[in-house]
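Exam revision sheet. Question 4 asks you to relate a sequence to its structure. Input first:
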Amino acid sequence: MSDNDSLLELTDIDLSIGQRLLLQQVSLKIGRGEILTIIGPNGAGKTTLLRVALGLLPPTSGRVRRQQNIRIGYMPQRLQIDPTFPLTVKRFLTLTGKKQRSEILPLLEEVGAAQVLESPLQNISGGELQRVLLARALLREPDLLVLDEPTQGVDVHGQVELYQLITRIREQRNCAVLMVSHDLHLVMAATDRVLCLNRHICCSGSPEVVSNDPAYLELFGPLAVQHLAIYSHDRSHRHDNCAEHGECR
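Answer key, structure tokens:
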């Protein structure tokens, strides 16, 4: 990928706050139509890296380059809403004033949450809330979607559906997706490249390459081994054999 093709490029990013080194020599590049997922343990600097990419935190050193006039949609990790505050989903999505109410319903339909349009935001489920937040990130018709733990608080079935939805959005809108996730065995099937972070880049590349990298296996320990078994099964398993054998193995 050339510099002209990239929507966002971070080069040799260091970030220190006080005496704490949060990021060290981190570089990444993402182009249109690509999904890049950042994984790593708690405290690895994943959300911090997203904030640097968004321009919310200035790096101590290094360079951040965004394509001129780039439109970015951001989905935060969590949203705290005062339970006594009367706010419907429709009102929440029109607070920015960027979209008319008539334009909100098609966005909710796109993410599979049209049924909550008139619902109080506090009353919808965790999965519905994540879809509403994704719709909000799409309001600006982004070139780049930045998603921080998009399946937070969602059950496994809902996680699979959300990753499939993110893939469809990428394909239909031809936008790039920069995503933080901890769902190792799910996200590997829903991304083009993986960046494994622990304040510095431990390893990066395609899901196949990262899944077999010693640094990845060391960082996640038994969880990585379990994921590798699931990932290998998913890639080799053929469901057309299930009917023949009467079950899936």
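Marking note for examiners. Residues 78-141 form one domain.
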